[in-house]
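Hi L., both proteins are below.
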Amino acid sequence: MNLITYVATNLQMTFIVIFAIFTLASLGAIWLGLKNYLGDKVAIKDIFKDKNRLMLLGVVGAIISFTILATLLGLSLGNGDGPALALTIVGSFFFATILLAFVLSFVIHFYKLNPAKYNHKISFLVVVFSGVLSFITLFMMLDGFVYLDIITFPLLSKIYFNVETGQGIAFYALFILAGALLSLALSDHEMYKKYKRHGMLESVFYVAFPAGIVGARIWFVIGDWYRFADNPIRMFYIWEGGLAIMGGAILGIITGVLFVIYKKKEINIFFAADVIVPTILLAQAVGRWGNFFNQEVYGAALPNLDAYFFLPAFVKENMFIEGSYRVPLFFIESMTNIAGYFAIRYGIGHGLKKYRQPLDMAFSYLIWYGLTRVIMEPLRDSTYNMGTDGQWSYIWGYVMMAGGVLLIVGNHIYNHYQAKKINTKPNGDQGQLK
């Protein structure tokens, strides 16, 4: 039997050959992208001399390797039928190519390695649409794995180094870190647009992120002190879990603001706060997927998830907890946080640009997240409500909302009277103030 006949009569081999062809085409597109968009007439050999380009190339290679492995797993380990195989293969291929488009467009848009060929609007649209489609195609691939019985539930909560001892990296930690890095990348881009420099916030991140982790732990320990009263030393056992996002956000913001004021005086603190604080909502949206792997942040028991028909099977099956399906509050809150970021960043940041004052966007975060907690906490399974009466986060949600409203009102009153003072100054003083 010659190769052509073998390929034609072997379905799995046909899929592998087709996927290999498309993979080579994708590699060609990536090569052109690296050559044309990461520098003016950059030779391939020079890519390996630049750590940023080399890092990007490594990410691209890792994505390709993962996707090939995922597809081969679907072909070789699957026990399902043709549609399940097709879903796995199609999802894997499009996930790889679209994710590559997202990575490249993200780097081009937010780091502008080739300003001469940079188009802000087009690259931003590519980032948004490729990012959304990456998630859709990822879930296509994962659903294929579910139907092929490759993935079993409940999902593992960590990547194990040693299953017997339980040592490993928790997905929760990875998602928290990923969300923090996303916040840093977006904030760095805004700082670059104003100051024409990258990396101005790296030192702030190195201080604020650990402070946020500490704040999240402190908030959890205070809110759920009854868990530690009998053995206080357990408050330091952070590997056992127990982080409260609200406390992490508060201490992280305070630490970051103080660090900028005293150590990064070249940065306008009002501008930095309006840029950085809303991105915390995106970090929290990403972090909630760590709760998904831990099977936390869920609501009431349901006979089925028909009302959530739009969710992929990968998510639905992991929402089967303690004998019944649960309301996927982690997903609802994740989407709510994403909506909040866009509402603050573009609704207030652009839509109300004529009326907003410096710090309005930062204070709006308090209102949005406080409202989120007020709405979500009563819907949450009581097991995960903080405080002896389960009202800790609920009450503090109202406090954050009220604080945000008062700060915005006070901010506008203050700026109004400052403007009146300027307008009543003699003309000579006006010129000096300007």
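That was the first. Here is the second:
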Amino acid sequence: MTNVVVLRGRVNRPPVEKVLPSGDRLASLDVTVPPNGGASRSEAVPLAWFGAPAWVAGIRPGTEIVVAGRVRRRFFRAGPVTQSRTEVVVEHAALLRHVTKCEALLRRVAQEITDADPGVTAPVGR
């Protein structure tokens, strides 16, 4: 088993970049994914992107992107209460208008899936 998620959606707020106490850079943004399958309405998905490339700072609301990563649930203290947040940690991303980069991203994810379980074949094509 492997934890892999691929999303295509529109950025719904500008990225917020911060430097963590460890010195790591983190970009946070949300992507709205249109309904598909059994969903009846769009869903906003929070993204966390460690060491995001410089081009991420230029992303504006409405920009369509494709991201691949993993789902994680983290816990944190908010005053006297422990809360949790589920988010996607971005490992690869591309602007949707860059078709070649999006195709390469999907091939990379398919390869990661097959590497994790050699019995699985995951063809990706047009």
